[in-house]
Amino acid sequence: SAAVRLNIPCPMPIETEEIVITDTEEETDLDTPWNVIIYDDPVNLMSFVTLIIQRVFGYPKSKAEKMMMEVHKNGQSVVWTGQREQAELYVQQLQSHQLLAMMKQT
User: For residue 104, how many other CB atoms are within 10 A of its CB?
Assistant: First the structure.
């Protein structure tokens, strides 16, 4: 089939205007770092908490022990800070080991 081209003049010029919509709240939300926080609980042994911090984050034992002692003495410790998606993954991993963990925006 052949294409048919119609040359119909436009009665008035068409003006185009580009509108850019930005959601600054969402952009800020994505850029703001998130803290992964472990809270003290009466169930888990300190050695277990240290081991899980090492396994989840790959920290050396000395750093994991320092964080665990912070949880023990202060009731909580910020164990990681970064992008939201990664923070969610870390919290899920910590919770799967029965640790009391949450994430909060910095």
Answer: 10
Q: Give the separation between CA 106 and CA 102, rounded to whole angstroms.
A: 13
Which residue, chain included where needed, has tokens 């803290």? 35
Q: Which of 91, 89, 53, 93 is nearest to 69 (CA)?
A: 53
Maximal C-alpha separation, the chain: 82
Q: What is the pTM of this model?
A: 0.72
How does pLDDT run along the chain (106 residues), one tens digit per residue?
A: 555 665 656 566 656 667 665 555 555 566 799 999 999 999 999 999 999 999 999 999 999 999 999 999 999 999 999 999 999 999 999 999 999 999 999 9
Backbone angles phi, psi at 87, to 5 degrees: -60, -40
Task: Tell me how far apart the alpha carbons of residues 97 and 48 are, in angstroms, rounded to a whole number.
Answer: 9
The answer to whether 36 and 101 have CB atoms below 8 angstroms apart is: yes
